[in-house]
């Protein structure tokens, strides 16, 4: 039943503790049995999760993983998002496939720039957010400062659901406002091992703080949270097990089951009989031996059965899905059936791409899977000019996956790649060499950003005649204005009021 599904992502800044929290959630759900399995270095981890060469070299996760676990009759689909500075569109698009998010904040650092960016995407889609303030067992900023920052920076009502009894050296546990009980640290490592003090004595200075915290914020309202206007805030320490069970309980009780998804003809409800879904990620070469290609599909409606025929919007002819995959990180199992909210992997040879809608009758087009205007543009220069054909194939493949965007200038032979974060460029060069045996260099492009052009044909033709040197086509053949600066974009918009210069493009 889809009402028993919770599909969510964890968003955070690097080092806020996302990997540790993910691991503890999986431990609680029985999906792993040993703390450290998700993070362990060496072959065991590489074999499962960090399969891409650049990930092995840098020790970070570049691609989003999907992890499924069960607890208390609820199936949780956790979509992991890359947490380093140079995150990619992959991260953005993962957020289109979830029904809610957990935002992890470091108690010492508060909200950092990347968290804000990810939050904006959640806001765009009204994705409800539960906030987890991590590392309260270390020295951190005062709880009220952190709450005020969340409220101001993200324009959300905040409701503390728990409160740390001291921080750092003074840390004596976490008070749950709903029960009035305190989870206490034990042993030399001062972890939470299950000791709950139901009639706690709170020292005077902390008692006053807690009364203020309870009285000074609005009551928690499930509807306001589900509408994306309010965030419940839990304080804890993923490393020391504080707040982890409370977080799972909050996801169980408050987080929405699979939500309707926006489509051309209106929203598609999860209760609709027809099976439908959309591809939010394509991953090639997860197994380099087989040159495989997996499309990740978020199931929106209907009960999917293995062997079913679905028609992708980009293709027009049905494909039979014989070997759908369910995921635990990079471990896979064949899925016999799936419900709305589930994520299944569909092996294919380049027929499915990001943004495709799949349905039984080919009459549904999901919306809201955007391409974002690139923030970095580079020219691609081949070291061996005879490999032009291989380069074109590689760039098409990688843009299909959402690793990069490719622009083919109307004048001039050098292709331009666009990315949202610097790391994507390193991934591009590394994968060109490792998977396509193409050596290429990236040179600065004369452009600063790109905008998709729309408008009446006559106005577009006139604009094209005057600006051919600044125009390119993307891989779909759509017209793109390559701008030398933000000023350039503004100037052209003023001069050409009939045209829209868009920073996003729906897939």
Outline the structure in words.
The protein has 507 residues and is α+β, with helices and mostly antiparallel strands. It contains 13 helices and 31 strands. The strands form seven sheets. Strands 26-23-25-24-28-29-27-30 form an eight-stranded antiparallel beta sheet. The protein has a seven-stranded mixed beta sheet with strand order 2-3-1-4-5-11-6, sandwiched between helices. Strands 16-15-21-12-13-20 form a six-stranded antiparallel beta sheet. Strand 24 and strand 25 form a beta hairpin. The chain is globular and about 75 Å long. Residues 34-52 and 58-64 have low confidence and may be disordered. It is found in: Cytoplasm. One of its GO terms (cellular component) is cytosol. Keywords: Cytoplasm, GTP-binding, Nucleotide-binding, Protein biosynthesis.
């Amino acid at each position: 039943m889809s009402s028993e599904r919770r599909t969510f992502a964890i968003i955070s800044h690097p080092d806020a503790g996302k990997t540790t929290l993910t691991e503890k959630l999986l431990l609680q759900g029985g999906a792993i049995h040993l703390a450290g399995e998700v993070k362990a270095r060496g072959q065991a981890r590489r074999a499962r999760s960090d399969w891409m060469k650049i990930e092995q070299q840098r020790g970070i996760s570049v691609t989003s993983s999907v992890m499924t676990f069960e607890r208390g009759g609820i199936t949780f689909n956790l979509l992991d998002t890359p947490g380093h500075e140079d995150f990619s569109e992959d991260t953005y698009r993962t957020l289109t496939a979830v029904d809610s998010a957990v935002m992890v904040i470091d108690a010492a650092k508060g909200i950092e720039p990347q968290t804000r960016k990810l939050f904006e995407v959640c806001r765009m889609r009204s994705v409800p957010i539960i906030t987890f303030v991590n590392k309260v067992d270390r020295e951190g900023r005062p709880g009220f400062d952190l709450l005020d920052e969340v409220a101001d920076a993200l324009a959300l009502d905040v409701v503390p659901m728990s409160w740390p009894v001291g921080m750092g050296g003074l840390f004596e546990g976490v008070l749950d406002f709903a029960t009035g009980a305190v989870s206490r640290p034990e042993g030399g490592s001062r972890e939470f091992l299950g000791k709950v003090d139901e009639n706690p004595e709170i020292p005077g200075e902390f008692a006053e703080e807690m009364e203020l915290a309870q009285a000074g914020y609005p009551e928690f309202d499930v509807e306001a949270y589900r509408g994306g206007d309010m965030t419940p805030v839990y304080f804890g320490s993923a490393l020391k097990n504080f707040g982890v069970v409370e977080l799972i309980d909050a996801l169980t009780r408050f987080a929405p089951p699979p939500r309707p998804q926006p489509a051309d003809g209106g929203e598609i409800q999860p209760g609709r009989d027809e099976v439908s879904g959309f591809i939010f990620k394509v991953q090639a070469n997860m197994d380099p031996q087989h040159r495989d290609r997996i499309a990740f599909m978020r199931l929106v409606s209907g009960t999917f059965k293995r062997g079913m025929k679905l028609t992708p919007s980009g293709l027009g002819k049905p494909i039979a899905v014989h070997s759908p995959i369910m995921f635990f990180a990079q471990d896979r199992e064949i899925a016999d059936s799936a419900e709305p909210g589930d994520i299944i992997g569909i092996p294919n040879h380049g027929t499915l791409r990001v943004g495709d809608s799949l349905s039984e009758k080919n009459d549904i087009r999901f919306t809201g899977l955007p391409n974002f205007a690139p923030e970095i543009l580079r020219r691609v220069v081949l070291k061996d000019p005879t490999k032009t054909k291989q380069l074109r194939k590689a760039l098409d493949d990688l843009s299909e996956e959402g690793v990069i965007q490719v622009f083919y200038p109307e004048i001039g032979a050098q292709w331009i790649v666009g990315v949202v974060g610097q790391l994507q460029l390193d991934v591009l060069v590394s994968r060109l060499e490792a998977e396509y045996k193409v050596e290429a260099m990236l040179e600065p492009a004369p452009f600063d950003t790109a905008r998709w052009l729309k408008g009446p044909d006559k106005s577009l033709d006139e604009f094209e005649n005057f600006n051919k040197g600044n125009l390119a086509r993307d891989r779909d053949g759509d017209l793109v204005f390559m701008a030398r600066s933000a000023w350039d974009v503004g100037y052209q918009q003023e001069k050409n009021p009939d045209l829209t210069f868009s920073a996003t493009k729906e897939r």
